[in-house]
Design a protein that fits this description.
Blueprint: H1 12-17, H2 32-35, H3 46-63, E1 95-98, H4 122-133, H5 136-139, E2 143-146, E3 155-157, H6 163-169, E4 176-183, H7 188-200, E5 206-210, H8 213-222, E6 227-230, H9 232-236, H10 243-247, H11 250-269, E7 273-278, H12 288-291, E8 300-305, E9 308-316
Parallel strand pairs: 3-6, 4-5, 4-7, 5-6
Antiparallel strand pairs: 1-2, 7-9, 8-9
Length: 321
């Protein structure tokens, strides 16, 4: 069965063009950047390899062609043009509103920091059209998530006692938060791209965990309303000698540990549903209409990474004590 979430590294098409075979089951998993491994060609027919390489080359050539500007037609109601401004007494309340019909909070009631989903960008338009076309089971799950207490440059060192509480208030909405694990400066481009894509879908409830303060500072320079935290002491903590701790990159392992500890605190202490994501994932659609309907009775939803569960993409809901 094809997994719910597909992710791949940025060099996937280059690997396809080089003739490396892909699993026939539909899941794309490239771990060469982390594990120092390449994909095996064993068990795949030459025809599959040739077809994959040809497809990769065609798509690379297509991407080099200039794309015509999209023709966008928008209904005023979809953009909240006729919606009334939100009362000032409600500005700090957690917000989760339908994409297709923004009232009681329309464009006039949103600050400039939370209007990306009302734009003409391809993902914003596509998300609104999907909300309109969705059946009754899914339509209500297309929502706009705005943080409870929006602010600029909110976050800091997680060793400080009040940092996480402030960061949660500036990132969570309606009991939901997305934990985006950006890592070091080399992941800032993919991380910010992920942030902007989600914002185009009306998903502003994001908390970034970075490897160091400089990463958050750079992200804030581009998007001040983004909540961002770092945890140097957790990264520097000594670990017992073991095959696992000595074979792999120590910084990467420490960051993996830090994000799981943070995930636990968000779920248990702050009683949040958390969508935990790697920064190098690509999302072509809003995940919540599926998570809140098809998987609404599931406590944990993960991406398959045969034979294991992928540690970078998982959703935890309704498990707080």
């Amino acid at each position: 069965e094809k997994p719910l979430f597909d992710s791949c590294s940025h060099n996937f098409w280059a690997q396809a063009a080089a003739g490396r075979c892909l699993p026939r089951r539909g899941q794309i998993t490239v771990d060469s950047a982390d594990a120092g491994q390449t994909m095996s060609n064993s068990g795949f027919s030459p025809l599959v390899c040739l077809g994959t390489a040809a497809t990769g080359m065609l798509l690379l050539a297509y991407q080099l062609q200039p794309a015509p500007a999209p023709q966008v037609q928008r209904a005023p109601a979809a953009l909240g043009a006729t919606a009334k401004a939100r009362p000032s007494s409600m500005q700090s309340a957690a917000t989760a509103l339908p994409v297709g019909s923004p009232p009681p909070i329309g464009a006039a009631g949103l600050s400039a920091s939370y209007r990306d989903h009302l734009s003409d960008s391809a993902l914003a338009v596509l998300n609104r059209e999907r909300a309109k076309a969705a059946g009754p089971r899914h339509a209500a799950a297309f929502r706009v998530y705005v943080p409870s207490v929006p602010g600029d440059r909110v976050g800091g060192d997680l060793e400080e006692p009040d940092t996480l509480a402030r960061a949660v208030a500036a990132s969570a909405a309606d009991g939901e938060v997305m934990l985006l694990c950006v890592g070091g400066s080399g992941a800032m481009r993919t991380g910010l791209n992920l942030v902007l894509n989600f914002r185009a879908m009306g998903l502003y409830h994001m908390l970034v965990l970075a490897l160091e303060r400089d990463v958050c500072t750079s992200l804030w320079d581009a998007l001040p309303s983004l909540a961002c935290v770092w945890w140097p002491r957790r990264l520097e903590a000594p670990r017992p000698a073991s095959l696992y701790n000595t074979m792999f990159n120590k910084v990467a392992l420490a960051f993996f540990e830090a994000r799981k500890v943070l995930l636990e605190r968000l779920v248990v202490k702050h009683r949040l549903n958390v969508l935990h994501l790697d920064a190098d994932t690509i999302w072509f659609a809003n995940p919540y209409p599926v998570l809140k309907t098809v998987y609404r009775d599931h406590a944990i939803v993960v991406q398959a990474d045969n034979p294991f569960a992928n540690a970078g993409i998982l959703y935890v809901q309704n498990v707080a004590p």
